[in-house]
Amino acid sequence: MRERVTFFHPTDTGVLPENLKRDKGGLETPVFETTREDRLTLGLDELPAEVASVLNGFSSLHVAWNSPVAYRTLEPFAARLSPGLHVLFDPAVAGTSENPRDCSVDEVREVLLPLIRALGLATLDETKLTIPKAISTTITGPEGSPQPKQFFQPLEELSYFAKWLSSEVCGAEDDACQSRAQRLQSAAGLDITYDAASKTAKVSAFWPLEKQPVSVPFSPHRRTEVGILTLGNPPNLAPDHVGVSGILTTLGEKKQPSPALFAFPARHKLSESYFSTAFLTPTGLHPTLQLRLSGNQPPKEDAECRPYAYLTLPKTIFADRFQLDGELFMASKNLTALRATSLPVDLEAPAYTTGAWGSSILLELAPPTSAANQAWTAEVPLHLRYLKPSKTGLESIEVPYPAVFWACSAEQGPEFSQNPFDRARVGYDTLFESDTVFWHVEPRPEQGDRLVNAISVPVLDERGSALIGVGTSLVVALGFGWVLWKLYSAVAQNGFRDTSEAAEEKKKR
Q1: Which candidate, 95, 66, 98, places its Cα nearest to that of 83?
Q2: pLDDT tens per residue, range 314-360
Q3: In whole angstroms, how far apart are CA 437 and each of 78, 297, 307, 364?
Q4: pLDDT tens per residue, range 130-178
Q5: Least crowded by CB within 10 Å, which of 252, 312, 351, 469?
Q6: How far apart are the C-alpha atoms of 264 and 243, rounded to whole Å?
Q7: Nearest to 121 by CA among 159, 71, 69, 67
Q8: Are 11 and 230 in contact (CB under 8 A)?
Q9: What residue intervals traverse the membrane (predicted)?
């Protein structure tokens, strides 16, 4: 088991090496502004048996969670996702890597349920938890690339997951593990990845840029490496690389912290622009999501760059891929094309009969072509599904912010695997060529700090629904009575006429 704790701070802040306090208890420093990432790398044989049995059912598993609360970050922690829990895995989730086979419904349920329970998403009545029906398959961009299956669920925080770790994974006397588990409640991001080829699992937690103490407890059960780093400029820094400098140390060793200066290729980088989203009013049953971006200039002038928005939509709302097909219509919304969508997407079913978790779409945006860097907007037409009746006649739904980025071609085909902080398989990256660099646009809410948009949806009033049932029955009864009355009147007035062939023969005689 290996542990790595990395602090990245702005170039104008930090901590001097002489202010580091290293002893048998671990490492501590005074408070300063920094980001933090904790990463554990474990072999399959180092995990609890029940956890290993779950992971053993996948050939590849990627779980990512992002907080719905806005936060600031620094490179190399630039990757963004819509708020909520994202599960991405390859179709061959059963069998071995040498002899994979497609999963059945029961197998998907068996391997995903323990994960869902640990994150606090399972209901008490698990017979109603139709995970297999909720899974969708994403259409990938490059030909021949895999079609991973995905699952999404809104998740506000990791408090339940922290309690699960504390009770099921950490020992009662492992104070360091208990403390780290509780600290997850303030994290802004969590990644869990497993690769069957290497039989290793990685768990990474991220804390945003804020003033915080550097405190890393020492544990004899694992090797813990600590880095306190900032952006640097090593010699011969290549394009699409990030240079860093700082100090590195290993807890439990008597060696003094050593200086570090190195570089690595970055799949995710930060652009200088930002965006916000809001639904145009009145929303009605066909709301339009407006994206407001602060600039229209690409982050790189010497590379081919295009802006995109990757939307993750709950089952209560969806985009009609047929509507997003006309060039003139798309141009009027400052959109270029719908590049990918998850399947299946039922365009008619109400939300309460829809089995899928929702849908995701990748839209290429069309910024103004002016040379000056200027703010601009793009509009995404969406459609609400019918919801269940309520006591008030209104239901509130939340739509998470999309991930907005510029996708730029890399100059030299960088090997992102050399990046110790790389974040791969986040959903939209599988829709592009493997050497694409994503320049992320920072989401900034115009009001408050939540990265979600709320809509009040008109639904049937429960009190009115009872009256409608009675009224419908009454109208049907009246209609049936009217038909009977007309039949009776006709018979009473003209008598019963036998129009059969036998009657005709009788008349001829």
Answers
A1: 66
A2: 999 999 999 998 889 999 999 999 999 988 788 888 888 887 889 99
A3: 11, 16, 12, 15
A4: 555 667 766 655 555 556 778 888 889 888 888 888 887 777 777 777 8
A5: 469
A6: 7
A7: 159
A8: yes
A9: 466-485
Please give the distance of CA 452 from its chain centroid, rounded to a whole number. 13
Q: Which two tokens stand for residue 105?
A: 């419904």
Q: What are 479's two structure tokens?
A: 């209609």
Residues whose CB is less than 8 angstroms from the CB of residue 453 and which lie 6 or more positions away in sequence, other chains included:
277, 278, 279, 289, 398, 399, 401
Burial class of residue 190 (count of CB atoms within 10 Å of its CB; 0-12, 13-18, 19+): buried
Distance CA 20, CA 255 (A): 13
Record the tokens describing residue 34, joined without a space. 């920094």
Residue for token pair 């910024």:
367
Q: Are the C-beta atoms of residues 358 and 386 closer than 8 Å to each other?
A: no
Please, which residues have CB within 8 angstroms of residue 358's CB and are 6 or more apart in sequence? 152, 312, 313, 314, 315, 316, 317, 318
User: How far is CA 91 from each of CA 50, 94, 184, 231, rounded to the nearest angstrom?
Assistant: 22, 9, 30, 39
- The secondary structure of residue 123, as a DSSP letter, is -
pTM of the model: 0.85
Pull the structure tokens for residue 355. 């089995």
What is the residue whose two structure tokens read 């928005």?
309
Closest CA to 418 of 158, 176, 238: 238
| Integer Cα distance of 383 and 359 in angstroms | 12
- In this predicted model, what pLDDT tens digit does every residue of 24-66 receive, in sequence order? 778 888 888 999 999 988 888 887 777 777 777 777 888 999 9
